[in-house]
Specification:
mainly beta; Glucose Oxidase, domain 1; SH3 type barrels; four-stranded antiparallel β-sheet
Length: 375
């Protein structure tokens, strides 16, 4: 059977997932191999050095730099509070003293008799990394982090904004073609991952954020509304760090696009379960997709082998989605995988496939113009 690998948009009912959780700089790992963790378990912790502030004390007091040690009331290494004097002149007969207050809390790091400047460092900022998903620690990276393994449902989206969040899955529409508007959201959805159908309206997304929903997962969203949400054109930057109250994940694309039936049915099947979601997306080098992970930890051991044996290649009969115009977003099934290269309209020679779309029409597409949907 013809077979070719292609990066795919995964929709897996049950699969083994491994998530690496690493600190940005070295620190302390707080769990061991074999430990069971939940999404909010802190697995590693470190501190980022505080910002540095320079104060030209000699200039402020009208002294030559070499006289700086004689007026310092704080030594190198001493803690300081914001507004606390770090240097003071003696004045005349104890009168008319001049002080230099610290502009920040932190510590005094250096006194320079060459420049007359004092270096102050603000307090370090704590950084904690949580497990993100319920699962088990399977590897520890010394002073860096851990790898978490979980078994569960895994769904990738086309595009998303907003970072990592968790919440119980809540289906708010009756079918994958239904629009998610404000009327379908209420306060009971606070902290939940709300599943819509073909589209979420601007008012619907605003209400989801107002009530505190963890996430909204829908087929599509209007591009002008995305610009309105972010206050700028996104371009090709990596998403995931946006200051949005609710993570938004699109499973199909921009505009009003019905969510794939398989995706919708699977999310409906998992309603009431806790999901971990992440809207981070990168389209170019190092492709990163938004994701929904629903751990099924009680079945971890019994399904490991079955889940780990999922297909990873493109075959005749594989479900695909077109990711380039003029067929962008259309779903279909591979009917042929020719071995020979074909010349396209651009005159380039590429490897192609024949696809039959859901409406029965067929097309010959470059393999680079599709992505596989794994069920």
């Amino acid at each position: 059977m013809a077979h070719a690998y292609t990066p795919g948009l995964r929709v897996a009912e049950l699969t083994v997932l491994r998530k690496e959780r690493r600190l940005p700089i070295k620190g302390d790992v707080l769990v061991d191999v074999g430990d069971a963790v939940t999404s909010d378990t802190v697995v590693a912790r470190t501190h980022l050095p505080g910002n540095v502030q320079l104060v030209n004390v000699a200039s402020k007091l009208g002294l030559p730099p070499e006289d700086l040690p004689t007026v310092m009331v704080k030594k190198e290494g001493d803690p300081v509070e914001k507004g606390e004097p770090i240097a003071t002149t003696k004045g005349f007969f104890g009168l008319f003293k001049s002080n230099v207050p610290s502009p920040c809390a932190g510590s005094l790091e250096n006194i320079s008799t060459v420049t007359g400047q004092v270096i102050l460092r603000e307090p370090p900022s704590p950084i904690e990394i949580d497990a993100y998903v319920d699962g088990q620690v399977v590897e520890v990276f010394e002073a860096e982090g851990v790898a978490i393994e979980t078994v569960g449902t895994f769904i990738q989206g086309i595009f998303g904004v907003g970072g990592e969040r968790t919440g119980e899955i809540r289906v708010a529409v009756a079918n994958p073609g239904e629009v998610l508007d404000a009327s379908k959201l209420d306060d009971s959805m606070k902290g939940q991952v709300v599943i819509g159908g073909s589209h979420v309206t601007w008012d619907g997304l605003q209400k989801a954020m107002k009530i505190g929903a963890s996430g909204v997962v829908v087929g599509g969203f209007d591009d002008p509304d995305l610009k309105r949400l972010l206050g700028k054109d996104l371009g090709v930057a990596i998403t995931g760090q946006e200051d949005v109250a609710t993570t938004l994940i699109l499973t199909e694309g921009f505009g009003e696009m019905a969510m794939a039936h398989g995706t919708f049915d699977l999310l409906k099947k998992r309603e009431g379960r806790k999901a971990s979601i992440n809207g981070a997306t990168q389209i170019r080098a190092g492709v990163m997709r938004p994701e929904i992970v629903v751990p099924i930890t009680e079945e971890r051991e019994s399904v490991r082998e079955e889940a780990a044996s999922e297909a990873t290649g493109l075959e005749i009969g594989s479900a695909i989605r077109a990711i380039r115009e003029p067929y962008f977003g259309r779903l279909g099934e591979v009917t042929e995988l020719p071995n020979e290269l074909r010349k396209m309209e651009s005159e380039s020679m590429v490897r192609v496939l024949q696809v039959r779309f859901e409406d029965g029409s067929e097309a010959l597409l470059p393999r680079a113009n599709v992505e596989m949907i794994e069920h």
